[in-house]
């Protein structure tokens, strides 16, 4: 058995020894310089074809799985402007995926993971198919590269080895560089090396590469002596290529790899920076030059120490172990550094620099999280933390981190797409109002709500007093537990007060869109049988009271001394109007009810509140109606409150001053925004009664908001608003996006251009109380997941990606998102059949959305099941086409949907919003642009340029209405 001996020479006495269970391999780095002027050439984007052998011989020794991991490594290191194609070949030569750019590359991960062995291999056919892709997809200025991953053992096809080499040479003469990756211990070395030589590329041996990367990483650890805080690593490679990496010491201990060192260069895949050399005893070795600059823990601000030397890789005959830094030493050092931040945090707090303090506290928590998994003795970690972090202002960090430590860390990688977010965070068995009252008692004078357009500012005490008075008056009017109470209001203080008053009395608050008019309002009230209604006289240009009077003409003859009797709204008994007193006799005045409630005894109210079961329903939210008539999702006190608790434990440091511009009738606004005051000391800033871009920017500027939540349209409007520069938005440390999945490039744009320190999207539905997953679980150390995924599910929830039978699919395979846990609705009110369709007998919610899951439980959106287009029997997901269309420089947004078609069943259509300066763009320009990026059947047959899409009030596009409009337009055109 051959081994590799790695030594640090000459400045380090450690000898690091490891074993390679196969042949010797050599790995080179290709970072070329311009020979003429010695200036480093600008990196050209890559047009890359991956040829993956899936023949029967690849099944032995898990070779195919190893090769697939290599393909995933390649995908991870590609730049956004690179293009990649995948050919997994057998005797029929199957082109799996063509022309994947950054926007569609995520789908390729699931395709790779789903590839299995089978059939004999025509190696020549696979390479030929790859070469033809370069002819089909011509990208000027791109480097043409092909990677062939194979053991080279299967049938080579109709050509001999010599003929294959001649063909590869010909392809190389046409500008294609071909690298070969020999897979497994038994690969055909002559075949695989011959392909690389003929293609003027590199030869790699995958299994050895992984071991060498691990050993070099361990060797670099030893150079750090015991513990350094920060280190600068400089590695000099072939052709004098130099790579510099600033590393925190913990990153090396956690297993950095050489891909991390040189992620900017695709050709560093599974490579090192070694060069051949001979040591004095005549042994041939591979040598890695390095230089490290670092500080010791007792002198973190002093002059850095410099260690220079080489790592020598050579084969020896014995076996030994790899020395590692002891986890307890690592924990002690990290906690010391976190403790040193304590004084700075205290100074910032004393100086009233809250934003800076929050940022440093967040950094402190993240630092501690980086070592939590190294500790097998949890008591040691917590006691060590307490030893160094002692100031009263931030002792909550220990509590926060202990909860995170016990709940979020798992070294176990998933093999099937099921994730349960285990957590020690306890459930709270209370109602929303009980929890709010407790928070109000702790912080009575803290300002909790600011309604900018109403010019109202509420402390906890002021709001609690208003809630109690409202609840007492509603009791006096005869409202009983379980009665439904409709709120037809915009974002006003009365809306918030009613949320807590309903919980206090055991009522079910029914949230109705203030933009709804007669028939829609009638439907929402009658669907669930509302007994009460709270409305305002007008909402902008909508004359709400006039609309309601047309529905209920009996109102003018009615007296508030008795219950209302309406022909169209038979269950409605009491109507309350905000604002000034109305002359209409049948209306209660909200202000009068508050004044009356102050005079009533609250003894019965307190008894009533104490009798409310936390498991009882507290709110009904109508689904947004993107596919038809809204359904009444019914949620409980327990579910909503515990989700808000979980959210605060997860995101609390960012939510100190939270800006909520989205409509309150949408559950995202209530759960992620408004109801945080039920669990914590914070401020909720409401810019205006309806979404308004200038009001939102002004509120952030004046109130120094730390977080902003909303649908993508809110953020787009800020980015494109001509007055954006008039407002200082720099206080924002976090932006949470929901309502519809967003491309990672858009989130990066938010961070750069608003700017905001962190942006992430979450995923959820009305049926699961809005927040099922959060991208912020990935944290700053993992921006790819934070920006590119839907995140991981919230604490104590279960989530799986399931097949049609409800079974969790393998990791990376596509399926439907299912969720189970405490915030899931108890059902659609009055709709047992619809409830049965959505909820299984075991409590799983079928979301209807397609996704994949990675090995750590992060979700990646694929498309909505109901939006999937089936054209001629082929499944097409609109999101892939949308992401490709928006790559066109003239396109701002795109929506893809289907219309019925006699021949194909369905046909692909697209509505496109152009950028302001793109008026010259034509439909044929779009189709031509897509021609070399999408298969012909995915290119929309019908394209229409529009100024806006048909959307729900919460910012979701109603594709079924786009389809209806397109069908009508085509019918008119035929006349």
UniProtKB/TrEMBL annotation:
Keywords: Ligase. The lineage of its organism: Eukaryota, Metazoa, Spiralia, Gnathifera, Rotifera. This is Medium-chain acyl-CoA ligase ACSF2, mitochondrial. It is an enzyme of class 6 (ligase). PANTHER family: ACYL-COA SYNTHETASE, MEDIUM-CHAIN ACYL-COA LIGASE ACSF2, MITOCHONDRIAL. The keyword Ligase applies. Belongs to the ATP-dependent AMP-binding enzyme family. It holds the Pfam family AMP-binding. Residues 47-223 form the VWFA domain. Its EC number is 6.2.1.2. It catalyses: a medium-chain fatty acid + ATP + CoA = a medium-chain fatty acyl-CoA + AMP + diphosphate; octanoate + ATP + CoA = octanoyl-CoA + AMP + diphosphate. Acyl-CoA synthases catalyze the initial reaction in fatty acid metabolism, by forming a thioester with CoA. Has some preference toward medium-chain substrates. Plays a role in adipocyte differentiation. GO terms for molecular function: medium-chain fatty acid-CoA ligase activity. GO terms for biological process: fatty acid metabolic process.
